[in-house]
Amino acid sequence: MDSEELIRQIMSEVMANLNQDNVTFAKRAAGPAGAAPASSDRVDKSQYPLSEKAPEKIRAANGRPFSDFSFERLRSGELKADDFRIAPQTLELQAQVAESDGRDALARNMRRAAELIAVPDDELLEVYDALRPYRSTKAELYAIADKLEKDYGCTINAAFIREGADVYEKRGRLKDSE
Questions:
Q1: The model's pTM
Q2: pLDDT greater than 50 at residue 32
């Protein structure tokens, strides 16, 4: 299969999946990341999938509107990898949909993910590694939480990491202090 066929096949699958319940697309709503949207910007399960029922709300993390996404633009090279990065606001909309359907745990996960978009990938990998059992002391985990909160505004994730550190302490899963 040549590269053009492969691109066509991938885009065909992506475009077909836009209407499925488990697919989200990059979106950027007005306002700063993590800010609560105005009530007129809120969505619920009746507007899902957003790509069909609220496409005007969907933008890539770099601001490109959903309407700009087409196979032709991908093929021409107009669309780049950064155009497909999800925006924190998309995840917030997905969280609202989940909440309106009584899926509160999924909504919390979407909001944690939205916060982490601002964190560079290499730092995320370090956090992931530090959160593995026996890899960090409680103080180290608290320091990671403080850094995420201070440097990136990740208040939800910071609280989650602190809670994890406390649980690790109770269960004996922390690295021995040196």
A1: 0.71
A2: no
